[in-house]
Amino acid sequence: MVDEIADLLHISNDSAYRRIRGETSLTFQEIGLLSNKYGISVDRLSKGHSNQVAFRYKPLDETKFTFADYLKSLRDDLLLVDGYNNTQIIYLANDIPLFHIFGIPELTAFKYFVWTKTILNYKAFKGKKFSLAIKPDQAINDIADELVELYCKQDSIEIIHDGTIDSTLSQIEYYWTARLFEKAGDVAILCEKLMDLVDHLCLQADYEVKFPFGKLPPEGKLEMCKGSYQLYYNEILHTDNTVLVSADHVKMSYLTNNGHNSLFTMDESFYDSTYRSVKNLLGKSALISGTSEKERNRIFSSFQKKITNLYSRIKEVAY
Q: Crossing angle of helices 293-315/166-177, nearest 10°?
């Protein structure tokens, strides 16, 4: 530690020791170097009250901060959370949480292509059409699998609404209309896999635990699943994806920006304010996990009907 601090601040080891012990105050320049090097928010360390909140923001970029880098940052955050006790994740899901999507390779491939080609406008995808035969880099698939496993280990509360799957449906329909499928048959597979995902979400809600797609624990051994799962349905929720994470004495907040980038802060006052709003929203939402079978089946049947209706519309249009 002493050597690293000394090298970073261009000072002797003796001077580094004096700063570490608090005998010598850090200069503004030194504070800036330490803050940038270790990702420490100086605002967060301040004891005063302020109406300003510091966020970590690193937008996706084709060369500087790739999609793989983005996934690695999510993995690192989940690994950090996994090291704490009493962890809880609250996910306001305007779209299907990517931790669920990543459990199905076909949906992962499609979402990755849409994000990089259409939303991020990566030059490498210019003029290309989507095909299930072309997989994302193995590194991306490996990280996606890790994210699923890590998320399934954490207790979580998710809040969905009637339009939670609409974004994915709209992307499939847009790609069909724009003739961006290499093979017409791929759209049928995607609709089928999306139906599988809806069934999986319903099954998790029934068991009140999370587990990777296709890995249902043996009957009577649900204790093998570490992450409890509470699913709520809200009829008026229409907001960006928001994720709140609490663990031990740590509070983290994630907000989406432009649909794919994320803003992150460990500001406790921001978390507490957002949590109060979420708690109020939960009070106006219906718990559909556990014993709420009738309401749960009604909601997920409506999702399945949306998928069926989309495929019916698509089949009527010649490709």
A: 10
What φ, ψ does residue 187 adopt, rounded to 5°?
-65, -35
DSSP 260: T
- Residues 23-46 have pLDDT tens digits of 999 998 888 888 877 767 676 666
- Tokens, residue 135: 């997989």
pLDDT, one tens digit per residue, over 78-109 is: 998 888 888 999 999 999 999 999 999 999 99
Cβ-contact 210, 149 below 8 angstroms: no
Phi then psi for residue 48, to 5 deg, are: -80, 170
Please give the model's pTM, rounded to 2 decimal places.
0.82
Burial of 92 (0-12, 13-18, 19+ CB in 10 A): buried
How far apart, in whole angstroms, are the C-alpha atoms of residue 160 and residue 234? 6
**93 and 157 Cβ atoms separated by less than 8 Å:** no
Tokens of 1: 């530690």
Taking CB atoms within 8 Å and a gap of at least 24, the contacts of 306-310 are 306/165, 306/166, 306/169, 307/165, 307/169, 307/191, 307/194, 307/195, 307/198, 310/169, 310/172, 310/173, 310/191
Can you name the residues that pair with 172 across neighbouring β-strands? none
Q: Where are the beta strands (DSSP E) in the chain?
A: 56-57, 88-92, 155-160, 229-233, 242-247, 250-257, 261-265, 286-287
Give the start-to-end residue ranges of the domains of the chain. Answer: 2-40, 56-315
**Alpha carbon 50 to chain centroid distance?**
29
